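WARN  no MSA supplied for this record, continuing single-sequence
INFO  ligand: zinc ion
INFO  echoing inputs
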Amino acid sequence: MLSIGNGTDTHRLIEGRPLMLGGVHIVCERGGEGHSDADALSHAIADAILGALCEGDLGVHFPDNDPQWSGANSLELLARVVWLARERNVHVVNVDSTIFLESPKLRPYIDSMRANIADILGVELGCLSVKAKTGEGVDAVGQGLAVTAQAAVLMESN
Ligand SMILES: [Zn+2]
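INFO  complex generated
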């Protein structure tokens, strides 16, 4: 059986925080505000997997008032979601994702993000797409106030 899921995540960008996307540190004056490391890409993909499993959202599994997840490495949260899928004998077929960030350009970082996430999901690099867009100078992304990620995932029962 096949199932699809989609996930979206946004974090406000503030000074004094590192910007993490797909487990990669992006050199930037601002980083994502949040309880965990605020990795919008990892959160969107984890939410998409939870959606395909009909398992609610990330906040249900990792409450932002739980000190256990304070400053958490989001790749670790993603690994826990993948573990939940494996418990149900479901695996990821492929992922397509898009990051919306005004600057800097993400192209130099994309392959590292793909490698990190493909490794955790247990898929080939060719099954893990990460695209990047700007906000074209409009809305919160375009004004450099936020980073957003969207992901779609296809899952299959073993
Ligand atoms: Zn998030």
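The first strand starts at residue 2 and ends at 15.
INFO  checksum written, moving to next record
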